[in-house]
Amino acid sequence: MTADVYFMDLEATSKENLPEKLLRLVKKTGLAQRLDKNDLTAVKIHFGEQGNTAYIRPVFIRKIILAIKECGASPFLTDANTLYLGTRSDSVSHIHTAIENGFSYSSMDSTPIIIADGLRGKNETAVMVGQKNCEHVYIGSEIINSDSLVSVAHFKGHELSGFGGTLKNLGMGCASRRGKLDQHSNVSPKIKRKTCIGCRECENHCPSQAIYLKENKLKEKKAYIDKTKCIGCAECIVRCPTESVNINWNQTVPVFLEKMMEYTLGVLKDKKNKTLFINFITDIAPKCDCLPYSEAPIVNNVGVLASTDPVAIDQAGADLVNQQQALPNTSLKTNHKPGEDKFKGLYPSVDWEHQLDYAESLSLGTRKYKLIKLKTLAYKKS
User: Fold this and answer.
1) Which of 74, 344, 357, 381 has fewest C-beta within 10 Å?
2) Measured between alpha carbons, how far is residue 295 from residues 51, 84, 161, 242, 298 in Å?
3) Which class for 212: exposed (0-12), middle (13-18), buried (19 or more C-beta within 10 A)?
């Protein structure tokens, strides 16, 4: 059985600009059939870290909010606090960051921001899933308490999952701090000290103070990890300027991806027919929007996808990116041609397809899809 995935390109005309085209896409996907009047609707987005510029533009999020309100539902913008130290690790700084990045009460048509897991990431609900890696998953309570959910994800590369789209936006993004730690708990980095320059970047950004510097026999200062303190957040991996922090990929990443899908199962457990998923395949950066900067996109902007199937929409997103010719002078060094796997080019040790296969085995959706392209409205020539 195949799932319908609706697609709009980024062509606009004098008859219909891109925000209006997005509104038509959302309606075409069946938003009105997913929401009931007065539904408290969680709009799960990523507000972007301070300094990051690749996150979804607020003008598009506002249009989605207006579409939800047209259905008579009551939307609120939400995300859960981060495990790593940054500008979104508690609700106060998280909301400040959201506002600075353009997601204010006024710009979002009087829509509130409610951080799903509370002030310090401890407001959580344990959801029974009974799967091989997780018996329970720990989700931000306001996600669970909402009547319906609209996921709006920025599709891009990711250091641990190969890419991040709808499934990551749900499984990792909706988890409380305890839930995020649970998913990362098997990720144990190691430091290649031959290339470590002792810059303290990893030490300064470690939320559990598990990293320290020590002199070797040559009296060079090198970084070391205390595995008894390490929480597996992988922050040191993305911070290291010499790529000296590595993971035992074959053992840890498959379990990480499976846990993330089991958390997605928990998020969606009581929301059957009450969800809609949107992927923005724009500003396709090689790494997550959690970084305080954005690298050059690896391919040109593609468009926007919408579906009621979270697996199909991510499969379609990956396919569309891989069909593109890579842009020059980016961190993508191989697999530049159309049809070549861009995410394998970025992260050759990550089997990104494993998350889709496992999600399919959990009956979260299907990898088989039908791509339905939205026609661009244009005036007829006289």
Assistant:
1) 381
2) 11, 20, 18, 16, 9
3) middle
Domains detected in the chain = 3-183+264-373 (3.40.50), 190-239 (3.30.70.20)
* Chain segment 65-113, per-residue pLDDT in tens: 999 999 999 999 999 998 777 899 899 999 999 999 999 999 999 999 9
C-beta separation of 115 from 91 below 8 A: yes
Give the chain's length. Answer: 382
Cα 145 to Cα 108, 125, 142, 222, 270: the distances in Å are 22, 9, 5, 47, 10
Looking at residue 336, what DSSP letter applies?
-
3-state helix, strand, coil in the chain (%, to 5): 30, 20, 50
pTM of the model: 0.88
- Please provide residue 245's backbone torsions phi and psi, each rounded to the nearest 5 degrees: -100, 125
Q: Are 68 and 150 in contact (CB under 8 A)?
A: yes
Q: What are 49's two structure tokens?
A: 């870290």
